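Here is an idea for our session: we take a single protein and study its fold together. Once you have written the record down, we can walk along the chain together.
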Amino acid sequence: MTYSKRLDAGKGACLVDAMPCVMHGQSCSIKKKPIFDVSGLPCPDMSTAGKRQKRAGPTNAVYIAHGRWTTDSETPLILVECTKEDLDMGMMEDTHPDHDFYQLYSEPANVGFSGLARYRTWAIGAHRKHTTCLFDPFDLQERLTAAFQKHVKAQVADFLVGSKFEIQMEASSLALRRGIPFRQGQGDLRYLLSTREEDTRQKLDAKYIQRFGSLPALNSNLVYFLGDSAEYCSWSAHSDKIPTYRLNSRNSLCWLPTQKRWLTQKERLCSMAFPSVPEIANAMDVPLLGATDIQRAADLCGNSMHFTTCGIMQLISLSCFGPRGKGQGLGAGIVA
């Protein structure tokens, strides 16, 4: 089915009003009226790996469904996150005809996490009937970015929060999966790398020495992503940023030459700003996120928004837009 036909079909489809509810043992209404919707919509068809099919790709159905729901619900404010690679804003406007969009871009460095690459676009949608702009969201984002970057710059070395026990636990788990005898207490985990991973590590070591004239083990912010071949140079050597986590490579290793081990899943969560250690959880005043389930943590990192970035983009959305008629237009209600 072509995009235009699927779009027409989506507009004419009936929406489900109720679904079986386990808690109440009956069908309960799902016809809610949210005031603010935050969604991460599919990115495969927007990316190079997905051949940039955009609206012609199979994930257009998700955008159509999201648009139909928020349009019927007359959701006053929506925030959509997607990969930076050319979100099809034309499709967003087709599928969300009652919203005006403001497209912003952000990466973890904008909120103080300089040691991680995860560049994303965020589209704020303001309903024409119910919502008005109170302050320029682009201006507010610039002010917040300047403030964060002036005071906070968390680097790769700051994310290394794994305890010896947790490191050994992950090493034991990998040894079991790969059928390699586990060497209890050994800090150098190169013996657990596959032949391909070890070959990639050695080639990246050689490339680093050739390009920078120093030993990789002397750079505390150096990370190799061993899920790609050495030809791709998926490393932090130039940017000092951990390469973007990908869902389809959640079991691949991010190697730390200085530590002779990989990033633990808790450390990945920490780099994504999740409250996986008491210090972060206490600062956020939220419960500690359990991070000992290796697979669960891997799924979260590969398929989630950066926690702090998402919070800041919600803050920008809610600060810059309000109910129509309650403010005085652009600039009202914000104190610099």
User: Anything to note?
Assistant: The two ends are 50 Å apart (CA to CA). Confidence is low (pLDDT under 50) at residues 329-336. Residues 156-306 form one domain.
